[in-house]
Write the structure tokens for this entry.
Amino acid sequence: MTVKDVPTQPIAGQKPGTSGLRKKVEVFQSPHYIENFVQAVFDAVPELRGGTLVVGGDGRFFNDVAIQRILKIAAANGVAKAVVGQNGLLSTPAASAVIRDLGATGGLILSASHNPGGPEGDFGIKYNISNGGPAPERITDAIYARTRTIDRYRMLSSPDVDLARIGTLELGDMAVEIIDPVSTYRTLMAELFDFEAIRALFRSGFTMRFDAMHAVTGPYAKAILEDELGAPAGTVVNAVPKPDFGGHHPDPNLVHAKDLFDLLMREDGPDFGAASDGDGDRNLIIGKGQFVTPSDSLAILAANAHLAPGYAAGIKGVARSMPTSQAADRVAEALGVGAYETPTGWKFFGNLLDAGMATLCGEESAGTGSDHVREKDGLWAVLLWLNVLAVKRQSVREIVHDHWQRFGRNYYSRHDYEEVDAERAQTLMEGLRARLATLPGLEVGPRRIAKADDFAYQDPVDGSVAEHQGLRVLFQDGARIVFRLSGTGTVGATLRVYIERFEPDPAQQHLETQAALADLIDAANHLAGIHEHTGKAQPDVIT
Ligand code: G1P
Ligand code: ZN
């Protein structure tokens, strides 16, 4: 086995976004593409030399090819040990757990999250640091800068590693340990949750369906829900990870998990339904006859987390992304703990968790998590729900309705206008931004605007500032409209409009959401001129 320096040259556009470098598979297949990026990581993070690197992905098409190349480049760059999930699998939260558990230097996670897979689909790679969380901008900037000057990568010429066999082998001077992808994660979950209580819940006849969407959580959910917690075989469906996710879109929402939703709306359906995405970090929670919005789920879990052993001492604070509904703030207030409002994107939670300021965090986009790892965690959210259900022995519907009665209900919806011409979307945002100062005091229907701003966040831990994180129109009665452009779309621009109002009166808490928000939806359109600017009379997706 020899180490070769392969001459190369920069490839444009290798700038990692919030979720790493994410492109079409065919882009990743082009000559030197992944090699350049991986070498740039080793050049930008010198402590990987002599360190431990965790490697794994969601099993999508190209996962195995990418891992073989990463291992050969890692060996040639002096990594002491690579720890790889069997068959190349590690869910994103499990990768975070393994990095933390081993005290590894970092990890390379292969995934394009909830985007479709297969040869025509998407692929992605991201670097996580030793706390188990995504690399901060200072590191991703350094990686990107290196991709722009790179002139060689180092690679070991060697046969491929057998990723199927658990155990340790040598690749040049580097040790490669192939691990069971589930084991560290399962141990962590067993520490956090009352598995005995959840077993008793299943023994009592409680029924559930978990849809793994042919993505990475299949093996985790089967091992934990069925083998460990005694849920009947068949509770986990679509449990075998496939390179193309069975041709489906592994996004656990009411569009792509419609079968699950329909089943839960039936009288004879199971008591509880849940799903996760391609790489296992998002979650969908549905009770019999009761969908739980991610914003409500965060608030309800915050109010009840103390029922699980891992959080029995209480939580230190709750953090939510700015567009996420304000429901969790009310819980934090009642508990007397901190409430934090961060820009969109998981990376903003890391400092708050590391500093012990927040324990739970979440986003309206179906991401919920805690300080047990530094990624959002789909199956963790499902297990916390199960733990709460096992203790309370109430239905999801009762728990949700009791929560609204106690804390009030935040009616909430997100309207997405997709594939909008990028320039027109900018014009809409700039137009509204320019008028923000004139809005306070304006009467809109039954409400008066109290404040309007362009959300900026100063990190309370490191003082860094993130600006232009969304335009907020705040009404005197607590209602709110937020406008922002997606940072993850691939075609044109996606305008996201988040609409919310607070309803303290239990008699008024059972309206249909869009109807309950109708006047604010109208107001959003008038304030920003959505229809004129986008040319669309209706949003493309309503969640
Ligand atoms: C979306 C979600 C955001 C999430 C991100 C990565 O980003 O809205 O909450 O953190 O995906 O999963 P957006 O497209 O809105 O920029
Ligand atoms: Zn994901």
User: Anything to note?
Assistant: The longest helix spans residues 378-392. The chain has three domains: 2-181, 185-407, 409-542. The chain has a mean pLDDT of 96. The two ends are 53 Å apart (CA to CA).
